[in-house]
Amino acid sequence: MLATSMRRNHCGSMWIITEHEYPKFVKIVEVGPRDGLQNEKEIVPTGVKIQLIDMLSATGLSVVEATSFVSSKWVPQMADHTQVLQGIQRAPLTQYPVLTPNMQGFQDAVAAGATEVAVFGSASETFSRQNINCSIDESMLRFQEVINAAKERQIPVRGYVSCALGCPHEGRIEPSKVAEVAKRLYEMGCYEISLGDTIGVGTPGSMFKMLQMVKKDVPIDALAVHCHDTYGQALPNILTALQMGVSVVDSAVAGLGGCPYAPGSTGNVSTEDVLYMLHGMGIQTNVDLNKVIEAGDFICNALGRRTNSKVGQAKSGTL
Amino acid sequence: MAAAMRLVNKKIFTPGMGQHYLAFTTAAQVYSAGIKASQALPETVKIVEVGPRDGLQNEKVVVPTEAKINLINMLSESGLTVIEATSFVSPKWVPQMGDQVEVMKGIKKKPGVSYPVLTPNLRGFQAAVKAGASEVAIFGAASELFSKKNINCSVEESLQRFDEVMKAAKEAAVPVRGYVSCVVGCPYEGKVAPEKVAHVAKRLYSMGCYEISLGDTIGVGTPGSMTEMLEAVSREVPVSALAVHCHDTYGQALANILVALQMGISVVDSSVAGLGGCPYAQGASGNVATEDVVYMLHGLGIKTATCITTRRDGQVTKMSCRAQRRT
């Protein structure tokens, strides 16, 4: 049973009283090949991307976000989307969702063999306009088209809500707005809603408040968290989400992908560090941490840079 | 505020865990069903800043005395109420702290701020008091092997040495803080039993230490092992006298600190700019960064008495990193 309540004390600081059980199992959604590589300066050759995805498939991950069918004009790093999707060796129990921002992207994705897609909404109007050149409402209309087409083909659709804990343009984002967008995506037909702390400004405090609001409108087992580690807060934020009943966590091997809004900062939380925490808590993931580290080593060599994962960094020193 | 904790199903760790770091996070053979916690977060958290000592002690570059003094003075202005200044260990063992007396005498002590120093034995204590120290700290270990390798004696022998320091400190009315290292894992022994940690913590507390800082020396702890350990220790030592000293070697520090707060702990050790790598894993990170801890605490609405503004924070970080000759 989950019983969560919050009240403010007379000084205004937040007291959280929680009674929680951690999930027995957490599904990791590996976003390194897409969200990670999309935000790396180096454009990685198609062969390397395919090898990375194949290595990740061998770790036991049940979801590996493979690529993005966005126009290569906007995201050159993902220009080889068709070759990647057609080149990977799909593990039988693994899904390979791809981003499809609109009908064109969806059709290209299906033609390339996609069996799961994702759409990307935002809780911030300004971010929506700056990022995908339209308002939130307009983006929802586009996504409805995609979701309808996907339904006809029985292709599941995952929904993302970016800026769930803060926006680089607007600053603070109201939890009610996040809930509104999440609810819309869920009611349109997304099977899962991933709530993204796009600029990593969230803390357990804001994560708690946001999830408390969103789970009124979307069932907790349809929610995922996508935390960025820009301010080092990703793991405590994920822990808070787990305490509130979330059991799906997005992460990127080797913490691939910097933060485009804060040069030099880290971005995605590392899959290795998330697994270390979950396994240490006795939570099952069916993912082999050693093999993820190997995949991380591989891609970091290819990129010519150090892993962002603390576990990866410690491993090379070996305690 | 006592936490109500119940660990449902014990983990079974794989045999021969030894030194393999991954053994600390191996998926349990028997599922650990989950942890129930019912706890309010503290209103205020005291940060114990260990950068100038624990941080710089573990940096390769030996920082000039002047730079150390400047760092401590800057930290004094940030609102921190405890800044661990230096260590009265023989410079033969810790050359980075060779200028202990000059540092102690050179800093501008701010009223209301405490500047504890490490004193491993009576000799160190006497030298510290002579140099003007008004608070000291002693360092025990929960692991026998670590104690032998680190300070060349058994845990029991170290506690006897500390007894001498405690007696002298009581006479001089100098408060003593106790540290327990390897509270979750040891680079030599592997997993450390929570009962052992509780035993050492209790001894230090009974000897007269006003606060016991529980150190995850190699950063292998997770919210799972952290909770187990704190549950055992808080049965022997009041939670209000406990602190956590988490290392971020595996990126777990903030998550571990969060569960500690949820169990009623309200004192957190951290190091400005995350100074101090891990001597047991080259290239790995070490101390958790004060900036990241304060960011989390303020985001939770918890007061810390530090006013870490971006500018001030940036200044301190830049200055300490310049002293290290790195960005």
From TrEMBL, chain A:
Catalytically driven reaction(s)? (3S)-3-hydroxy-3-methylglutaryl-CoA = acetoacetate + acetyl-CoA
According to its UniProt entry, one GO biological process term is: L-leucine catabolic process
Asked if the Swiss-Prot or TrEMBL record annotates the protein with the keyword Metal-binding, the reply is yes
Mark the transmembrane ranges.
Answer: none
EC nos: 4.1.3.4
Q: Which InterPro entries match?
A: Aldolase_TIM (IPR013785), HMGL (IPR043594), PYR_CT (IPR000891)
PROSITE patterns per the UniProt record, alphabetical = PYR_CT
One GO MF term attached to the UniProt entry: metal ion binding
What are the protein's UniProt keywords? Lyase, Metal-binding
Which pathway does the UniProt entry assign to this protein?
Metabolic intermediate metabolism; (S)-3-hydroxy-3-methylglutaryl-CoA degradation; acetoacetate from (S)-3-hydroxy-3-methylglutaryl-CoA: step 1/1
Q: Which residues form a coiled coil?
A: none
Does the record's keyword annotation contain Lyase? yes
- Residue span(s) of domain Pyruvate carboxyltransferase: 26-293
Could you tell me which NCBIfam families the record lists for this protein? PRK05692.1
Similarity-based family = Belongs to the HMG-CoA lyase family.
Cite the PANTHER family for this sequence. Answer: 3-HYDROXY-3-METHYLGLUTARYL-COA LYASE, CYTOPLASMIC (PTHR42738:SF16), HYDROXYMETHYLGLUTARYL-COA LYASE (PTHR42738)
In its UniProt entry, what is this protein called? hydroxymethylglutaryl-CoA lyase
Species in which this protein is naturally found:
Nothobranchius furzeri
UniProtKB/TrEMBL annotation, chain B:
Q: What is this protein called?
A: hydroxymethylglutaryl-CoA lyase
Ranges for domain Pyruvate carboxyltransferase: 45-312
Q: Which Gene Ontology MF annotations are present?
A: hydroxymethylglutaryl-CoA lyase activity; metal ion binding
Q: Which NCBIfam families match?
A: PRK05692.1 (NF004283)
User: CDD domains under this entry?
Assistant: DRE_TIM_HMGL
Which Gene Ontology BP terms does the record give? ketone body biosynthetic process; L-leucine catabolic process
Question: Which pathway is this protein engaged in?
Answer: Metabolic intermediate metabolism; (S)-3-hydroxy-3-methylglutaryl-CoA degradation; acetoacetate from (S)-3-hydroxy-3-methylglutaryl-CoA: step 1/1
Q: Which reaction does it catalyse?
A: (3S)-3-hydroxy-3-methylglutaryl-CoA = acetoacetate + acetyl-CoA
Keywords assigned? Lyase, Metal-binding
Checking Pfam families in the record gives: HMGL-like (PF00682)
Q: Per the UniProt record, which EC number(s) apply here?
A: 4.1.3.4
**What family is reported?**
Belongs to the HMG-CoA lyase family.
Q: Which gene encodes it?
A: HMGCL
Xref: PROSITE patterns:
HMG_COA_LYASE, PYR_CT
Q: Supply the Gene3D superfamilies for this chain.
A: Aldolase class I
InterPro entries per the record?
A: Aldolase_TIM, HMG_CoA_lyase_AS, HMGL, PYR_CT
